[in-house]
Amino acid sequence: MKPSLRVAVAGASGIGKHHAKWYNECGCEVVAFLGSCDASCRATAEDLHQSIGFSGRGYSDLPKLLEEVEPDVVDVCTPNELHFEFAMAALEAGCHVLLEKPMVWDEGADADRLLGLAKRLVDEARERALHLGVCTQYAASLPLYERIYTQEKGDQPRAWEFIAEMETLSRGCQRDGAEIWVDMGSHPLSLLLAWMPDGEIDPDSLEAEFAGRQAKTRFDFNAEGRRCHCDIAVRDRPEGPPTRRFGVNGVLVDCEGRADSDGVYQSVLRREGTEVMGQDFMSLLIAQFAATVSGVESGPLVSGATGVRNLELQLQIYNAALARR
Questions:
Q1: Which of 30, 81, 102, 104 is 20 to 30 A from 182 via CA?
Q2: pLDDT-derived band of residue 1, with 50, 70 and 90 as boundaries?
């Protein structure tokens, strides 16, 4: 029997603590995490001990963690501007890397530099025969969505119209449209790329706007002689359940999460009385990444190369919206 994968989570006090839980649930061993300071590490270690029985160590120095722990996988959940630095250090240390979205980001960098950094990560992983994945988990929704679409339309979806509306709770944080797009824009784009992986934005059709606490964009997405009109909105809302709605060709579904009859948290897609339930999308993405590293699956749900394409589209829309200001 193969030993379980040894995982280190960089940034485990926020979304990273949920990543740690999902790794634990799929049979991996969370052996270490990276925190911002000693006090933060103590609090996070206690939190992880309570949730997953964590008995490893917290570090505030990544090189020391990599040298002393030698994890198989480093999961990067740090602030966006640290993604490249930490992912590259982990790859150079021989670790497989799963990155939170966006793949890389730096407020002061132009699109060419950011894409260059993302491509460097992909190249580094390829040269070292390591796996690199990105957490745009809505790509995992397609099998569930196709069940609803096929039931209604009688065939598999072939997109000529794509609509996505996604909200997140602001939790008292006042973010503008640009910040919301950086945080949320990769999710609808991951769905679009799952349907049309070779698609390109028609620049003459592109409209984008950051207004208040919302980012909106419309464009035509072209691939292999096929044109898909896209209408995307992402926004913050102060309270209440956030809307997560998407679909193609007028078949829109609402996405939510809830526990099943056994108490296991699942993802749910709903449309007009029809409901399908399946494994939580982030849990599925992490389980597939672990299975890929273990040699059971052929690749991550969202590869580093797909992450670069996602970032490219996100930046194209980002810059179009800024140009309107």
A1: 30
A2: very low
Residues 59 and 148 in one domain: no
Domain match, 179 and 255 both: yes
The domain containing residue 209 runs over which residues?
Answer: 137-324
Question: Do 307 and 178 fall within a single domain?
Answer: yes
How does pLDDT run across 217-226, given as a tens digit for each residue?
Answer: 999 999 988 9
Give 254's Cβ-side CA count (13 Å radius): 12
Residues 70, 84, single domain; the answer is: yes
For residue range 222-247, list pLDDT tens digits in order.
Answer: 998 899 999 999 999 988 889 999 99
How far is it, in rounded angstroms, from Cα 297 to Cα 295? Answer: 6
Are both 187 and 41 inside the same structural domain? no
- Under 8 Å between Cβ of 139 and 190: yes
pLDDT in tens, 81-139: 999 999 999 999 999 999 999 999 998 889 999 999 999 999 999 999 999 999 999 99
Q: Which of 135, 156, 183 is the last residue of a domain?
A: 135
Residue 168 has which token pair?
Answer: 């997140």
Give alpha helix (H) positions in the chain.
Answer: 15-25, 38-52, 62-69, 83-92, 111-127, 142-153, 177-184, 186-195, 281-293, 304-324
Euclidean distance between CA atoms 222 and 256, whole angstroms: 30
Identify whether residues 112 and 92 lie together within a single domain: yes
The CA distance from 35 to 41, in Å, is 5
* CB-based contact 54:45 (threshold 8 Å): yes
125, 91 contact by CB (below 8 A): yes
pTM: 0.95
